[in-house]
Amino acid sequence: MLGLWIEPNEGAKLWLKVITELRNRCLADVFVICCDGLKSFPEAIEAVFPRTVVQTCIVHLIRSSTRFVAWVNRKALIRRPAPYAADTEEAALTALAEFDKRWLERYPMVAQAWRSNWERVRPFFAFGRDVRRIIYTTNAIESLNFTLRKVTKARGHFPSDEAALKLVYLGIRNMEKKKWTRQPKW
Questions:
Q1: What integer pLDDT is reported at residue 90 of this predicted model?
Q2: Would you give the end-to-end CA distance of the chain in angstroms?
Q3: Which of 33, 36, 176, 180 is the right S-S partner for 57, CB 3.0 to 4.6 Å?
Q4: Closest CA to 145 of 166, 177, 175, 120
Q5: If residue 171 lies in a helix (H) or strand (E), which one and from where to where?
Q6: C-alpha separations of 139 from 30, 96, 144 in Å
Q7: Residues contacting 132, CB < 8 A, separation 6+
Q8: Model pLDDT, residue 67
Q9: What is the DSSP string of 29-52?
Q10: 173, 171, 181, 179: which is closest to 148 by C-alpha?
Q11: Which residue ranges make up each domain of the chain?
Q12: pLDDT given at position 117
């Protein structure tokens, strides 16, 4: 957790402000960031940290692409050969081509979702399996957000931003005690 910001809405200006503030607080460099499709977030990262590898969350991409698919076909659709399970980018493109042969006529939006996000997917294949297991998803952040939504939703409205921040802080502190673990050998 690098910070908390309370803003009335989310957008390009907010993300640029957040990333710039992190840099100004001495975050010198970021190697890789996994994003879940927030508009303008990758561009803000690249503006402030131009050497950072920005990658799309594979789990979010799978979920968003399966929303175009009938429920009975979802399991068959995401089984191997799946692009995200490949060892190399070339093998992933081959898997995507095989997917096209089998499903394109029935579900053209799925392959289109992968192809339109490919520039943000391809950095994933530059890493080994151990690193991929850690960077393929934003689920750690999603888990934190879910916990914080539970804490804040029960309260409804807050008398001030400071009251909301205090409750969020306490939620994070309690979560640290229960949930967060370190990756082995890291």
A1: 92
A2: 17
A3: 36
A4: 175
A5: helix 161-178
A6: 19, 24, 8
A7: 124
A8: 83
A9: --SEEEE---TTHHHHHHHH-TT-
A10: 171
A11: 12-135, 141-177
A12: 86
Element at 55 (helix H, strand E): strand 53-56
> What is d(CA 144, CA 88) in angstroms, rounded to the nearest whole number?
31
Cα 51 from chain centroid? 19
- Check if the beta carbon of residue 110 is closer than 8 Å to that of residue 99: yes
Q: Can you tell me the distance from the alpha carbon of 86 to that of 107, in angstroms, rounded to the nearest whole number? A: 21
- Residue 51 in tokens: 């050497």
Q: Which of 39, 114, 116 is nearest to 77 (CA)?
A: 114
Cα angle at 5 between 3 and 11, to 5 degrees?
120
Ranges of residues in the chain with a pLDDT under 50 are none
Question: Token pair for residue 18?
Answer: 């957040």
The residue type of 68 is: F
Beta bridge partners of 33: 54
